[in-house]
Amino acid sequence: MHPADLSNVVELGNVSKVYHTYSTPQHRLRELLSGGKKQYARETRALDNVSFALARGGRLGIVGENGSGKSTLLKVLAGVLTASSGTVQVRGRVSSLLELGAGFNPDLPGVENIRQFAMLHGMNSDECERAVPDIIKFSELRDAIGHPVKTYSSGMAVRLGFACAVYVQPDILIVDEALSVGDAYFQNKCLHKIKSLLDNGTTFIYVTHAADSIRALCDEGLWLESGKVRLAGSSRTVGAAYQSEVFKRIVRAGLPPPQKEEVTSSELATIAEDADVLSAPTITAVAGPLGGASTAQLAVTPMHDHARHQAFEERVASLRTGSGEARIVDIALLDGHGAETDSLELDAACTVRVFYRSNMPLPEECALTLGVTDSSGRQLLHFSSKPSRIFLPSDGSHALRVVEFKFINPLSPGEYGFIGGIGTFVNNPRNHGQYLTDQIIDYVAGGARFAVRFPQEALAQDLWGVVHTPFSVAEYSLD
């Protein structure tokens, strides 16, 4: 190996973590008695020759599916686990948010656990006493801080754990998806605190399943797969590649493995019918609030979209409701260039295509609606074809058709989902400009997701909340 670079606070060189498991205790004993001549253990490599370096003040985001080795890597960095091979160099005081509150003594009051936690992380008695009021204030435990931790709810223990971890003045902060602490208010408070640490030069290592999180909080990225490094680079590059892979898996979800059986005549007819619609020169479309009806041309492979529609059906089956005269079969997001995507830039022009098929005649003035939801399912945006007087054909022709909504994305960076509905609607007699559902023909949720990315260049903005809008600021005297 090359000599250690002292400008790096974290250096890993060909680190592996291997676990040996035995089917029975007797096999372990036989291996010991053989002096290593016989091997009965089954080897599992949680980490396999992982190498990377992180400079002081760097921000590294680690992504990967469950079982990829992310948490094992963090535990090696935090000193909780010892690597089976390779070299690990960590320089500085480490504070890890791996299992918040796991190290507390349940019989001691919260305030005593604070002192023990701080001293275990290298703080002297004076530093501990100065930190105690700040930790109590941040955790918002108030009088409960004098009660034994075993009387705390899980949420209270997590709050105390987070407050301790960020107030021990760490040189390196390691977080394993611990930001889901408490309610949305406290999560936002934790995020602000972490960002203040980062602004003051704390080195940051963060594991998450959300690609947009590493793009927001980190400048470097590492993608682990089966214990190996699949991709390393900038957080934007790694986040985009990982999110693209997740999107592909969502599309493939629920599809049966390929078979060599002959396609039935009815399946051929369905595929041919899809091909006729998808290769047609134009498709009637609906624009969102920014314009009227328009036409769009689709350039897709019919067989591919038939498979996509099957996957969509599998994802929404458990949540689908309605009388069923028509069914939404897919929802696709397109960027301003007409390319299908799973992420958007701020203020980007975009198109959402909702594919549907009628199975029988529909009521008159049957409309299609599209909603955008946050990660909790709360609806943030709503679009409907009814105000534009564009309704679904009532002949029940079984043809695959598309309703298309075009709009400028107003959402702040984050993860979002689509919901879609088909039905008839009547005016709300109390709230003008609002429709009430008269008949639900189809309703689907959970069929498609997308992300809004943080800007790639520095902007004079402070992006928080759900939506952002242009505004002006004025300051003046009233005297």
Structure write-up:
The chain is an alpha/beta fold. It has two domains: 8-249, P-loop containing nucleotide triphosphate hydrolases (Rossmann fold); 264-452, abc- transporter (atp binding component) like domain (Coagulation Factor XIII, Chain A, domain 1), CATH 2.70.50. Helix content is 27%, strand content 31%. The protein is built from ten helices and 19 strands. The protein has helices spanning 25-33, 70-78, 110-120, 125-139, 154-166, 184-199, 211-217, 235-252, 265-278, 302-316; strands at 8-21, 42-55, 59-63, 85-90, 94-97, 172-176, 203-207, 220-225, 228-234, 283-285, 294-296, 326-334, 343-344, 349-358, 367-373, 379-384, 400-408, 414-427, 435-452. The strands form five sheets. A six-stranded mixed β-sheet has the order 5-6-7-3-8-9, with helices on both faces. It has a five-stranded mixed β-sheet with strand order 13-19-18-15-16. A hairpin with a 2-residue loop joins strand 8 and strand 9. Helix 7 (211-217) runs antiparallel to helix 8 (235-252). The N and C termini lie far apart (70 Å). Mean pLDDT is 79; it is low at 254-304.
Key words describing this protein structure:
single chain; 479 residues; alpha/beta; Rossmann fold; Coagulation Factor XIII, Chain A, domain 1; 2 domains; 6-stranded mixed beta sheet; 5-stranded mixed beta sheet; 10 helices; 19 strands; 31% strand; globular
What is the fold's blueprint, element by element?
Elements: E1 8-21, H1 25-33, E2 42-55, E3 59-63, H2 70-78, E4 85-90, E5 94-97, H3 110-120, H4 125-139, H5 154-166, E6 172-176, H6 184-199, E7 203-207, H7 211-217, E8 220-225, E9 228-234, H8 235-252, H9 265-278, E10 283-285, E11 294-296, H10 302-316, E12 326-334, E13 343-344, E14 349-358, E15 367-373, E16 379-384, E17 400-408, E18 414-427, E19 435-452
Parallel strand pairs: 3-7, 3-8, 5-6, 6-7, 13-19
Antiparallel strand pairs: 1-2, 1-4, 8-9, 10-11, 12-14, 14-17, 15-16, 15-18, 18-19
Helix pairs in contact: 3-4, 4-5, 5-6, 7-8, 9-10
